[in-house]
Batch of 2 targets.
Target 1
Amino acid sequence: MFADFMVHALIAGIGVALVAGPIGTFVVWRRMAYFGDTLAHSALLGVALGFLLGVDPQLAVMLVCLLVALLLFFLQRQQRLPSDTLLGILSHSALSLGLVCIAFMEELRIDLLAYLFGDILAVGGRDILMIYLSACVALGLLLLIWRPLLAICLHEDLARVEGVRVDLVQLSFSCLLALVVAIMMKVVGLLLITSLFILPAAAVRRLSRSPEQMALFAALAGVVSVSGGLYGSWHLDTPAGPSIVVAAALLFALLQLVPARQ
Amino acid sequence: MAEALLELERICLVRNKRHILENVSCRIEPGEIVTLIGPNGAGKTSLLKVALGLSKSDSGRVQRSAELRIGYMPQKLIVDRTFPLSVARFMRLTGRYSDTELQQALAEVGAERLLAASLANLSGGELQRVLLGRALLRKPQLLVLDEPVQGVDVQGQVDLFELIGQLRDDFGCAVLMVSHDLHLVMAATDRVICLNQHICCTGTPEAVQRDEQFLKLFGAAILPHLAIYSHDAQHRHANCPHQGCCCQLGEGTAHVR
C-alpha cells in the first residue's frame, strides 16, 4: 500500500529518531533546548555556503554548526552576556545571514521550504546511508562520554573536582549535536529539529527509572512518532515533517495520562 | 609542624573590577576542622573554588600536598525533576565502587536506607547526607564542604555538624567548610576564619568570638534573639590587619563556571 518513497522516508526517519532520542534526553536535562534551536537555525547558513562554495550541503551544515557551537562555547566562557542572549544573537544572525546569502544566489533556485520544514519524502539511498553512518558515529561518541556527561549534568564543579574533563566532554557533545542536526534537517526541517530532541525525551520521563532507560524509551518514542507521523501524512495528505512533530506532541500528551513509575 | 594539606598564599581574586578576595592566606593542617564564616558576598565560596582549583586567582599561590584526595560537597545540588537517577547511580557516577562500599559510606552518614531512592525525591537533609557519603567514597584527606547544612532544620543542622566532627575522628580527614550558622558551627570547629574579602580575624572559636573585628561583622548575630545578621555598613576595616592588594582592578580574567 505504501510507495517506495514512503519506505525510504520511514527508514530515514527511524534512523534519525533512534539517535535524536538519547541525545534529546541530555538536551532536556542540560536545558539546552535553545542551544539546539541555535544550531538548527545556523544550519541554513551552512546550506547557503555549501551552494556558494560548491561543497556538499550536508557537510557544510555540519561545519557551520560546529563553528557556531565552538563560538558559543568560547563566548559563554567570557561571561560578558547571559547565555540566552548570546544564543538569541547567534541563532537569529545565522538564520538571517543564511536567508540573505540565498537571496544573493539569483541563478540558483533553492527550495527554501524543504530546508525549513524538511523533505523526508525526497530522501534517496545515499541520504539514508549518510543518516545511518552519522547516527552510528554520534551514538558511538555519546556512549563514550555517557558517564562523564551525566556527572556534568548533575553538577559541573563537582564533576571537575572529581577529575572529569568537563570542557572536553562538553565540546564533544557540541560536535555530536552539530552532526545530528545536519542529518535531522532532511527529516523535519531546521525549524522543527529541536522538537524531535525534546518531545520524545519529555514524553517518556515519567516512565523512566534510570538515565539509560529514559534514553532508550526516548528513542522508541521517536520511532513511534516518525511512523505515526508518516502514516498520518500519507492518509491525510499533510506535510511529512510537521506531521511527525504533531505525532510526537500527541504521544507526549497521551503518555502524560499514564501514572508515573517510582 | 607537619606538611599542610593545602596552603593558600596571598590570594587575590578580581571580578568585574571588584576585589572578591584580597591577600588571603591560610593553611589547612591534616585532621583539623576549619570553618570560613563571613557575610553574604564575603568571598567564601570564591575562596573554596580557588582552593579546589575551579577558579584561577589573579595573584597568589595555591599549594596542595602531593596526590591530595579531596572530597567535595557543593553548595547546592539542584536535581532536576526530569533527571531519573537513583542514589546508588549518583554515587557511582565518577568512580567504580562495590555495593558494600556504597552501603558502608551511606551507613557512615546514617543514610543506608536511601541507596535505592530517587535522588530527586530526597529531602534537604537527606540529600546533604548522601552528598557527604559520596565524598567519603574517595577516602578523602580533605573534605571541602560548602554550606553543608543549607536547607536543613535546626535539629538536622546540629546532627550534621556532629556527624562532620565524627567523620573527622573516624577518617582522620581535615575539613574546610563554609557556614552561615554562627552558633552551631562554633562548637564543631577547631579554627574559624572570618572572611570579608580579606581575612578579618582568625583563631579558635572562643578567641574569634571575642575579637573586635568579629563583633563588628556579626554584632547583630551575637544578640541572643536575633538569628539574622547583616554586614555592618560602618565597618571600614580601619583596624583590620590586612594589607592592600597589589592587583589592579579590572585585570581579572573571566570566571570559569
Note: DSSP finds twelve helices and no strands in chain A.
Target 2
Amino acid sequence: MHDILVWWIGAQAADEAAMEVLRQRVEDVFEWPATCWHDERRPTGTYDAGRGQHLSTAMLRWLNSHRPHDAARVVGVTDVDLFIPILTFVYGEAQLGGHCAVVSSARLGSLTLPMQRQLTLGRLVKEAVHELGHTFGLVHCRDGECVMSRSPSLASVDAKHGTLCGDCRLIYLEKAASLGTPYE
Amino acid sequence: MNRERVRILVVDDEEIVRESLSGWLERDGYTVATAQDGASALARLHGERWSIMLVDMKMPGMDGLQVLEEARKIQPEVTAVIMTAYATVDTAVTAMKLGAYDYLVKPFDPEELSLMIQKIVSQQALVRENVLLRKVLKREYHFRDLVSKNAAMQKVFDLARTAARSNSTILVLGESGTGKEVVARAIHAESPRAVGPFVAVSCAALTETLLESELFGHERGAFTGAVARQRGKFEAAHRGTLFLDEIGDITPKLQLDLLRVLEDRRFTRVGGTEAIEVDVRIIAATNRDLQRAVAEGAFREDLFYRLNVIPIHLPPLRDRKEDVPLLIDDLLEKLSVEMGRHIEGVSHDAMAVLMAHDWPGNVRELRNALERAAVVAAGTIIQAGDLGLVKPSTPTEAAAEQLGTLESVERQHIQTVLEHTRGNITQAARILDIDRVTLYNKIKKYRLREIESA
C-alpha cells in the first residue's frame, strides 16, 4: 500500500467531503499518494474526565498500534478536544520521525456552520499537513508563512500558508527519498 | 542559533508529562532529555551542558526547589523554569529567589509556553552573540573555544594547556590554515601572561629590513623615513606573548638577531645603542619542515633548538575528518554573527560534499567555503551547490565526462529539468514526458534529491 492514510477517528460521523479535500491537499503537498482510510474502530482510553478532553499522546499510541503496518504515514482526524498534560489544549500532535499524527477540528472553528466551513477546513488541512510534516522529521520552521511554523494560536494558524517553504521542502525531499518511491 | 544547540532538560516524575513535553519541544527543533527525579537531573547536569531546565515543583525525594538550588551550584548559567500544578505565592517567591527564570502553573497555554521558550532562547542567543562578537573583535580564544573530538587534537590541547602555564618558548607546527595562531592565542589567554599583550607578527610578509625594524623598533634617523623613534613588537609584547608566525621564512641575519634576543632577553633598536630588556614569552609557528631546513643549512640549528623547547604539531584537517561537522557548526555560528545573516546549517548533500573534500587549506579553507556559501545561499540552509567546491578530476576523467555515457546524460538532463521546475515532480514528469513513477525511480537511481530551490 505505502500510502499516507487519512483516517477519521472522531466522535461524530465522518465528514467525507472534508476528508477528501484534506486527502487531496496532503497528496499535493507531500507529492505522495494519500487515501481516505475507512475503519470504524475509534481510540479508547484517551478521555480524561478531570479535564473533559482527550490525551493526544494516548491517541497517537492507539493509532500506532492499530494502523495498517504497510501505510507510509497515518493522520488521525478527530472532532474531540485534545490536550497534553502540561498544555491547556493542542490542535494536534505527531511522532517526530514516526508514523502517526493526530489533528483535531475542535478548536479550529465549525465544519457544520456554512459561514465557517471554508475557514475551518483550511485550518484543519494546514494542521494536518503540519503534523504529518513532523512524522517526516520536519521540525518547526521560523518562516511564519511556512506550514511548519509553530501554531500556538488561531492567528498563527491563519498567518501561515498551507505549503512547505523552500528549506522545509528540501529537507522533506531528502527524508522522503530515504523511504523509497511511493509507488513501489 | 541553531535550535539543536539549545539543550533542554525536562525534570518531572510523571512519565506522561515528560513524554508529551519533550515531544512538544523536540518538534520545535530543540535537543531534549528527561529526568524522572532530582537525583538523575543533577547527574545529567554534572555530565553535560544544558541551556534550559523545566523542573516540576512537586516530586518525591528532592522537590523542584531543592533541584533548583543544587542545579545553580553545578551550572549557574542554566535558565530554570519551575512548573507546578499547585500555585502558591510563597513557593513562587522562593523559586524566584533561588534564581528561577519563571514560574508556570500547569496546564499552561501553548502560546505562553512557546513565547517563554522563544524569549529564553533569544536572550541566551544575545548573550552568546555578545561573547562571540567580543571574541571576534578582540580575537580572544581559549581552549574551550577550540572544537575537536579527534584524539590527536585532544593531545595537542592537553600539551598546550600544560605549556601555557610555563614560560617556555613554544613552536607550533602545522600546515597553513590548521589554526596555529588560534592555538597561540589560546595559550596566551590561559597563561599567567593573559593580562599582558598578545602581539602577532608575520615574518614572511616583510622584507629583512622592515621586519628587523618591526621587531626591534628603530631610533629617529636610523634610516630614510625614520622620522621618529618607533617601538618594536618585542617592546610592545613586554609582559605578554610575542607570536612569530612563519618563522621558517626569516633570513640568516634575522635568525642571528633573534637568537641573541632569545639568549639574552635584551636587544637594541635599529640605529640605537641602548640595550632594552624585555620580558616576553615567544610562541613561534611555521608550516615548513624546520628540521629539514636545519639539515639543509637554511635555518640555524642553535635557533631551532632555542625555539623547539615545546613543539606542538597540529594535524591537518584531512586527518581529523570527524571534526568537520563540529567545525561547521562552530564556524556557521560565528559567521552568522559576523555577517548578520542567520544560517541554520548545511543540507545532507552539502555535508556529504564537505566530508568528501580533502581540505588542503585546512580549517581556513573550510571557513572560506562556508562564508562563500552563506553569501550565495538562497535560504537558511547551505546547499551543496552553494559551496563552490569542485571535485578535482584527472584529465582522463574529464575527457570521459565530456563524451558522457547515456546514463550520465540522462541523469544530467533530469537534474536540469528538476532545477527548472524547482523540484516539482509532477511538472518535471510532464516536461520529460514520462510518468511520475518512472521519474521517482530515476531520481532514486541517480540519487537526485539534491535539487536546489532557486
Note: Residues 392-399, 450-454 of chain B have pLDDT under 50 and may be disordered.
